[in-house]
Design a protein that fits this description.
By secondary structure, the protein is of the alpha+beta class. It is about 35% helix and about 35% strand. It comes from Coemansia guatemalensis.
């Protein structure tokens, strides 16, 4: 039971993930960070089977960084998402498919625009302005449908995030105690506390 959602404006993207890790009816961890910084301007958040999420995410993180070292240039967010999709597709065709859903977001310094990519465990990919994975998607997508517009500011993005978290708290029977909120923009990736939004 994971909560993972994100929203992208023209020059920023905001990622929200819950901090809990559960197995069956037992909460194993309450302070997990389910995001991975792939480059200084690209962030990936993951949800799915705990073993697959950590192993596959570390594999992707290592390969994206290796590409940057070998070529003296980091992958753009769209190139990173395409690479991830290719690796998921290869795993799907092998005997070891990965049960991992991801949101990849970033700020492209060349085009000066942010982007958000929705990727599921079947290696389907879509570039969209807002997205969600997990059971929370039943509640947050309707809020984002109603509130989103292409010209939102970072402050308006935070307001939408607050409304999404409120909808999950009010309607979802399982209480997610805390969230990791990260922003990706021209300054890079940074974490934001709930109290600051």
């Amino acid at each position: 039971m994971d909560a993972q959602f994100a929203i992208a404006g023209k020059s920023f993207a905001i990622s929200v993930t819950d901090k809990g890790v559960a197995h069956s009816i037992v909460k194993m961890k309450h302070n997990a960070d389910k995001t991975y910084e792939l480059t200084p301007h690209t962030l990936m958040s993951v949800t799915g089977v705990p073993g697959d999420t950590s192993n596959f995410s570390e594999y992707i993180q290592g390969n994206v960084r290796l590409y940057g070292i070998r070529n003296s240039q980091n992958l753009s967010p769209s190139e990173t998402a395409s690479f991830i999709r290719g690796e998921l597709a290869n795993a799907l065709r092998s005997r070891r498919p990965k049960q991992v859903n991801m949101l990849v977001m970033g700020y492209d310094k060349n085009t000066k625009e942010s982007s958000l990519y929705w990727i599921d465990y079947l290696s389907a990919i879509a570039k969209i302005p807002y997205a969600a994975h997990g059971h929370c998607s039943y509640f947050v997508l309707s809020v984002m449908d109603r509130e989103y517009n292409p010209d939102i500011t970072l402050e308006q993005g935070f307001e939408i995030i607050k409304k999404c978290i409120a909808a999950v708290k009010m309607r979802f029977p399982i209480n997610f105690s805390d969230y990791t909120i990260k922003v990706v923009d021209s300054d890079g990736v940074r974490e934001v506390e709930m109290a600051d939004i």
